[in-house]
Automatic annotation (TrEMBL):
Highest rank taxon of the organism: Bacteria
Coiled coil: 245-279
CDD domains registered for this protein in UniProt: RecA-like_Lon (cd19500)
Gene: lon
Record's compositionally biased regions (Polar residues): 785-800
Gene3D superfamilies (UniProt xref): 1.10.8.60, 1.20.5.5270, 1.20.58.1480, 3.30.230.10, LON domain-like, P-loop containing nucleotide triphosphate hydrolases
GO molecular function terms attached to this record: ATP binding; ATP hydrolysis activity; ATP-dependent peptidase activity; sequence-specific DNA binding; serine-type endopeptidase activity
Source organism of this protein record: Subdoligranulum variabile DSM 15176
Chain residue ranges for the region called Disordered: 785-813
Name this polypeptide is given: Lon protease
């Protein structure tokens, strides 16, 4: 069939493109716009636009029919003229048409592109002279009924009202009214089907009266609903003024039954008399309230929170030493002293079951296993476990809860953790307790004093609950990276257990026994990828620099991901990763050798420092500039205490310089520059005193300092060496760098008991009391040099991260 449609008029029959309308009836002499979405309807519009813009519009009987045939369409429709077409998209067209002539559908041809209809124009038959009076009466009745209709439906536009009220033509009225009133499309089609004007007016009047009756019923229903709402408001005020009315209405029965249920549960808890009395009062308040009031919801939430607590519900402790040791050894490698402390804690609880108030604080660098130790303690004892992070908490209400006077009040984190654990004696981990903050909302660390005080926490009162809850059976375990930032009163309530940095051997065993099997399972590589010992050591030495093992685990995961990619791509079925393979996968080594003196040098001495993430090597350089005037320059972001140590070193050099060949004029004719490398990292503390003095004496005398020796200690003006802190971490740093000898203050000799056995096997510790002893050991005095002065220290195996960008202080203690 050609796209161009020729309008043929033969025997009063017209062939036109047809559009089946869903839920829409178009009348003659009316302008209508609608959307077309079916492909055949869009094609019919395009065909009509290519000819004379005429199209036959007919409504279909069922709206859900997608491909309507002759039987699916009504017999009568309208020949319309397309006035405007707007293409919204490829699948949607908006059309503006004007109805011209009523027509009867004679034949329908379903073409490939659109429907083509054969129609015969059928105008409405006029009115005879004898029917004029009856017609005029119908028109008046229609207008009166329309005015009644307006009283129920005032949203009709003013133009439509004006056109209907002022209309004088019965034919115009019979076509304009159904086209513009909100009638069902079946009713509109029934009017269009009527061939006589008198019959059409009668049918229209009947439909309009039915519609008015429906609207009247709807209005009555709305009035009844509004009246009911007013009645509800009245009843609300009556309930508030006279509770007896609530009983007569029967609306209080639900809250009474609910309050009775709460009362039974409260009495079954067998709490102390004060708590029971307070909760029962809340039940009484609930029973007197309207069920849908806001305050009743607040009371329900409060009672639910109180009843959800595990009152008198405890778990039985498993304090068997062998079981606990097996669990700790299975979950953690090394940490022998930490495990012993935990076993001692369990042993005390076994011998004295009434012991209370054991608050454990695990202090150590990030990634050494503080949180997992807490998990293991809960598993050892067979207790429930709950964790709450305190990092960044600055609102006291986070600990104690909000008072119920506030909207959205809720219990604090302690009570929430107890509720989650479903036991009144769980193990609760307070993570990152050293990172608490305080502001205008209160100080959370002060709120924790009651929680962690065994003399007070047996009657801990949350602001929301406002009744005491016994926390004395709870085993609190806290973690911190830096104990110095924990407030003193809070720190005093805790039993501190220090977790040291891991040695190279410990990291290897942790990776082999725990990290590698875990990540092989997580990445689906069990039995497909193996990492040799050399590969693990290469990752530890060349790609990680930390006290713990988090970066080590991430690096192992990175290696496994790259292996998984190759296996998934079909390159290999199994991969064995060696040290060389690690370099090929991860690229060049990321850990660079630490800057320390690696050969016997003049004016450079190796010191030891303590940071919040472990020990560090801290070399000190001194340069003597001839032709000066005795000026002293100190650089390297040194704090006030270290600057004072430098002044002490200079004073000692002036007093005892002759012992090392330094003349009195030497210090007057030179400038001295003292520098601590990695200048971007702030440094402070008194324990660099011996290092500064040794480097200064070496620079002034020209005597080299041993490169395989490190030292730490505070000095006095007369050269005495005073004790320092952090010996354990400092010795670990010397061990990592391959230092063979470490000079320590004599008074720190007892601290060697805490140093790892592996470190003590590799390092020779020499206690010293005076600077003369330090210089005797550190300086290669004439006649005392040996072959040790020429060999080079092996490259660093690992180093705790000290990111320059974070400006984290390398505090020398």
């Amino acid at each position: 069939m050609s796209e161009k449609v020729k309008v043929k008029i033969a025997r009063n029959v017209i062939h036109l493109p047809a559009i089946a309308l869903r839920g829409l009836v178009v009348f003659p002499n009316n302008v209508v716009h609608f959307e077309v979405g079916r492909p055949k309807s869009i094609a019919a519009i395009e065909a009509a636009m290519h000819s004379n813009s005429s199209v036959f519009l007919v409504a279909q009987r069922e709206m859900d029919v997608e491909e309507p045939g002759l039987r699916d369409l009504y017999a009568y429709g309208v020949i319309a003229e397309i006035k405007q077409v707007l293409r919204v998209s490829d699948e949607l067209v908006k059309v503006l048409v004007e109805g011209k002539t009523r027509a009867r559908l004679v034949e329908l041809v379903d073409g490939e592109k659109y429907l083509q209809a054969t129609v015969r124009p059928v105008p409405v038959r006029g009115i005879g002279a004898d029917k004029r009076t009856q017609t005029e009466a119908l028109v008046r009745s229609l207008k009166e009924c329309f005015e009644n209709y307006l009283s129920y439906s005032p949203q009709i536009s003013k133009d439509v009202v004006y056109n209907i009220v002022t209309a004088t033509s019965p034919l115009y009225l019979s076509e304009y009214m159904p086209a513009n009133l909100l009638l069902k499309y079946e009713d509109k089609q029934a009017i269009l089907n009527e061939s006589t004007l008198l019959g059409r007016l009668e049918k229209l009047l009947t439909l309009l009266r039915q519609e008015c009756q429906v609207l009247e019923i709807e209005r009555d229903l709305d009035d009844k609903v509004n009246a009911q709402m007013d009645k509800g408001q009245r009843e609300y005020y009556l309930r508030e003024q006279m509770h007896i009315i609530s009983e007569e209405l029967g609306d209080a029965e639900d809250t009474r039954a609910e309050a009775e249920e709460y009362r039974k549960k409260i009495e079954a808890l067998k709490l102390d008399s004060e708590s029971t009395e307070k909760l029962l009062k809340e039940c009484d308040r609930l029973s007197r309230m309207q069920g849908n009031s806001a305050e009743s919801g607040v009371i329900r939430s409060y009672l639910d929170a109180c009843l959800a607590l595990p009152w008198h519900i405890t778990t039985e402790d498993n304090l068997d030493q062998n079981h606990a040791r097996k669990v700790l050894d299975r979950e953690h490698y090394g940490l022998q002293k930490v495990k012993e402390r935990i076993l001692e804690l369990l042993a005390v609880r076994k011998l004295n079951t009434d012991v209370k108030g054991q608050i454990v604080c695990l202090v150590g660098p990030p990634g050494v296993g503080k949180t997992s130790i807490a998990h293991s303690v809960a598993e050892c004892m067979g207790r429930k476990f709950a964790r709450m992070s305190l990092g960044g908490v600055h609102d006291e209400a986070e600990i104690r809860g909000h008072r119920r006077t506030y909207i959205g009040a809720m219990p604090g984190r302690i009570i929430s953790a107890i509720t989650t654990a479903k036991s009144s004696n769980p193990v609760i981990l307070l993570d990152e307790i050293d990172k608490l903050a305080g502001d205008y909302k209160g100080d959370p660390s002060s709120a924790l004093l009651e929680v962690l005080d065994p003399e007070q926490n047996c009657t801990f009162k949350d602001n929301y609950l406002d009744i005491p809850f016994d926390l004395s059976e709870v085993l609190f375990i806290t973690t911190a990276n830096d104990a110095s930032t924990i407030p003193g009163p809070l720190y005093d309530r805790m039993d501190v257990i220090e977790l040291p940095s891991y040695t190279r051997t410990e990291k290897f065993n942790i990776a082999k026994r725990h990290l590698l099997p875990k990540q092989l399972k997580n990445n689906g590589l069990e039995g497909r990828v193996t990492l040799t010992s050399s590969a693990l050591y290469e990752i530890i030495d060349g790609y990680t620099r930390e006290a713990g093992v988090r970066t080590l685990e991430r690096t192992i995961t990175s290696v496994l991901r790259k292996c998984a990619q190759r296996i998934a791509a079909g390159e290999k079925e199994k991969i064995s990763v060696s040290a060389s393979t690690v370099k090929a996968l991860l690229g060049p080594e990321k850990v660079k050798p630490t800057f320390i003196s690696r050969k016997d040098s003049v004016g450079i001495a190796n010191g030891l420092a303590w940071t919040s993430v472990g020990g560090e090597m801290l070399p000190v350089e001194v340069a003597v500039i001839p032709g000066g005037s005795g000026k002293i320059e100190i650089t390297g972001s040194l704090g006030d205490v270290m600057k004072e140590s430098a002044k002490l070193a200079i004073s000692y050099a002036r007093v005892h310089g002759e012992e090392y060949g330094i003349t009195a004029d030497r210090l007057k004719n030179v400038d001295i520059h003292i520098h601590a490398p990695e200048g971007a990292v702030p440094k402070d503390g008194p324990s660099a005193g011996v290092t500064l003095t040794t480097a200064l004496i070496s620079a002034l005398s020209g005597i080299p300092v041993r490169h395989d020796l490190a030292m730490t200690g505070e000095i006095t003006l007369h050269g005495n060496v005073l004790p320092i802190g952090g010996l354990k971490e400092k010795s670990m740093a010397a061990f990592r760098e391959g230092i063979s000898t470490v000079l320590i203050p004599k008074e720190n000799e007892s601290d060697l008991f805490e140093v790892d056995a592996e470190v003590k096997q590799k390092i020779h510790f020499i206690p010293v009391e005076h600077l003369s002893q330090v210089l005797k050991q550190a300086l290669l005095l004439p006649g005392h040099s040996s072959s040790r002065g020429t060999h080079t220290v092996p490259q660093a195996t690992n180093l705790i991260a000290n990111d320059k960008s974070t400006k984290e202080p390398a505090t020398v203690m």
